[in-house]
Write a structure and sequence with these properties.
Largest sheet: 8 strands, mixed
CATH class of the largest domain: Alpha Beta
Shape: globular
CATH topology of the largest domain: Nucleotidyltransferase, domain 5
Strand content: 15-25%
CATH architecture of the largest domain: 2-Layer Sandwich
Number of domains: 2
Helix content: 25-40%
CATH superfamily of the largest domain: ATPase, nucleotide binding domain
Strand order of the largest sheet: 5-4-3-2-1-6-8-7
Length: about 400
């Protein structure tokens, strides 16, 4: 094993409403983190399915557990992880928390006081933060001596200037936390760090990173720092997503509530779970299904998805004052060459030229040699980013 002997292991947990993703990393004497296990616990009817893969991506565990909820199965999960550690000393657990509000701008070690504060922030992301916090609370009770670190998806965007975070609302609402925050920060931070290694020249320049998955956003990077992004107060804003509508005229929502009689809860379900690619197509929120479909509504959903990306990319290029690089990441960005090709074609006015063969083959650099804009595909790894923060954060 490179880097010397293993000195411990770090566990990362990313809890959502219907799944919990996990990863285990070896921390070796050199300070490097080496992947050891990755997996997920996901709802499977009235039970849960636990899958685990080794460092080569081979499935080594595929089990169905009888517990119906994550909180009920956490003890089972921790015991299963203990077995996988194979004698390794677990030195910390890192968690993704979607929203840190304006006051939490860096990773932090969990304390009872911090947990209480984060509980109050749950109203800023009610569909995400309560699920993020649930395993943290359970572990604090079950293993009070275990070091836990929270990593905020909003923290990377702390460098965005005030002019880009403000809404044109009466100023008192800013003090109540109503502002643009940005999300997918752990993904963008990982991409920025990889870019610094792969192309220091590009890292120092003007880059748009496109996190395109079931959740989707763009981020304008200058010198590796976020200066603007398409998501705002919530992860509902910006691009068209799998089941989320993206940017919406607030007057349309007022109309739906006033004239269509939608309650707040009904409007929330509409915007978060019934819209986006699913709502436009009436078929699926899965881009693979839509690209293979012959239905006109599926094709239109893809067209709208691309149109929004191109429109927002043009706006961010303007904010950056030009463009040196474009990076695709996340599920669609990494695995859908047709989407990459269509986006790049529409951005040709920026001097961007695609190498069609490299794009089809999934190369790391997919721009043509004469392209004025370098286009890359970088596989994101939020779990690795969380593990790095656990490693690097000084113990309290």
């Amino acid at each position: 094993m490179s880097g010397g002997p293993t000195v411990g292991a770090i566990l990362t947990l990313n809890a959502g409403s219907s799944s919990l993703k996990l990863a285990i990393f070896d921390l070796v004497a050199s300070g490097a983190l080496l992947p050891w296990r990755r997996g997920e616990l996901r709802q499977d009817g009235a039970a849960q399915r636990f899958r685990l893969r080794d460092a080569d991506g081979v499935t080594i565990v595929n089990e169905v557990w009888s517990e119906a909820r994550f909180d009920a199965s956490l003890g089972h999960l921790l015991a299963r992880i203990d077995g996988e550690l194979a004698g390794r000393r677990l030195i910390g657990i890192g968690h993704r928390v979607v929203h840190g509000g304006a006051g939490h701008r860096m990773p932090e070690e969990v304390t009872p006081e911090l947990l209480a504060l984060l509980g109050e922030l749950a109203e800023l992301a009610p569909l995400h933060v309560p699920h993020n916090l649930a395993p943290i609370r359970e572990i604090a009770l079950a293993r009070p001596d275990m070091r836990q670190v929270v990593c905020f998806d909003t923290a990377f965007h702390r460098t965005i200037p005030t002019v880009a975070t403000r809404f044109a609302l009466p100023r008192e609402f800013e003090s109540r936390g109503i502002r643009r925050y940005g999300f997918h920060g752990l993904s963008y931070e990982y991409v920025a760090r990889r870019l610094a290694v792969l192309s220091p020249r590009l890292y120092a320049g003007r880059v748009i990173a496109a996190h395109l998955g079931n959740g989707a956003s763009l981020c304008a990077l200058k010198g590796g720092e976020s200066i603007d992004t398409t998501m705002g107060f919530t992860a509902l804003d910006g691009l068209v997503m799998g089941t989320r509508c993206g940017a919406l005229d607030p007057g349309a929502l007022l109309h739906l509530m006033r004239w269509e009689g939608l309650s707040v809860d009904e409007a929330e379900r509409l915007l978060y779970t019934r819209s986006g690619l699913l709502g436009l197509s009436g078929i699926s929120n899965d881009m693979r299904v839509l690209l293979e479909s012959g239905e006109p509504a599926a094709a239109e959903a893809v067209d709208v998805f691309i149109h929004r990306i191109v429109r927002e990319a043009g706006a961010l290029a303007s904010i950056l004052g030009g463009l040196d690089g474009l990076v695709f990441t996340a599920g669609i960005g990494e695995n859908a060459p047709e989407i990459r090709a269509r986006v790049c074609e529409r951005l040709g006015w920026l001097g961007l030229r695609l190498d069609e063969t490299a794009n089809a083959d999934g190369a790391e650099i997919i721009s043509a040699p004469d392209s004025a804009v370098e286009v890359r595909v970088i596989a994101t790894d939020e779990e690795a980013m969380i593990a790095e923060h656990v490693r690097d954060l000084p113990a309290a």
